Amino acid sequence: MERLNIYPYKKRKVKLTTFVVLLAVMLLPPVSFNVYFRYVKEQMVENLENRYAEILNAYSIDLSIDSSRNLAEMSRIEDVLLNQIRTLESKVNSLNSYLEKRKKWEDFSDLFTEIFKKQGRTLSYLSFSPESVILEFYEVSRETQEVLPESFLKDGRINLKLLFEEHLPEGYTMKKYRLEYGVAKK
């Protein structure tokens, strides 16, 4: 004869093996996800290290699987790079200002050469300042000469004035000019 338990309020008991199987079934997915994502993360870090080995070595970056350590390392490198960017920007700005000043003085050098290319001109006064150059010169000649070509006179930075003109014996004429060249304008 078979034994039946007809008692309705009896508590069910779980066997130890059933408990272990249920526990394994419950823990297996999170553990497997953890292992899988850790493996993927290691592969990604290794891929980054292979791809950007030169950059990582240049800035002595040590990537690891620990994200918090990588974030601290990246913020340190970001600060280093920002400092380098600021330094390079200031160097570029100083070079640009130097080249700009150089170009303006080069233009004046061309003007100066053009003025004294012709015979019979003598410099009497020259004054330099950061904003302008003032020069006065004499011209002694028999015929009227063009002081500067039209291309120079069109420049708004050049102000040329005839200070005086005197007729000398034997058909010579002496003229005194004042030229103001505004370097800061343009």
How would you portray this structure in words?
- There is one protein chain.
- This protein is of the alpha+beta class.
- Among the domains are: 13-58; 110-182, no CATH class.
- It has helices at residues 16-51, 53-58, 67-115, 150-153; strands spanning 121-128, 132-141, 158-167, 173-182.
- A 4-stranded antiparallel beta sheet has the order 1-2-4-3, with no helix packed on it.
- β3 (158-167) and β4 form a beta hairpin.
- It is rod-shaped.
- The mean pLDDT is 83.
Distance between the termini: 118 Å
Helix content: 40-55%
| Strand order across the largest sheet | 1-2-4-3
Order of helices and strands: HHHEEHEE
Count of beta strands? 4
Beta-strand content estimate: 15-25%
Kindly name the structural category: alpha+beta
- What's the gyration radius in Å? 44 Å
The dominant shape is rod-shaped
> Uncertain regions: pLDDT < 50 for 5+ in a row?
none
Sheet with the most strands, sense and barrel status = 4 strands, antiparallel
The total of helices stands at 4
Mean of pLDDT: 83
SSE map:
Blueprint lengths: L15 H36 L1 H6 L8 H49 L5 E8 L3 E10 L8 H4 L4 E10 L5 E10 L4
Antiparallel strand pairs: 1-2, 2-4, 3-4
In short:
The chain is of the alpha+beta class and 186 residues long.
Task: List the main descriptive attributes of the protein structure presented here.
single chain, 186 residues, alpha+beta, 4 helices, 4 strands, rod-shaped
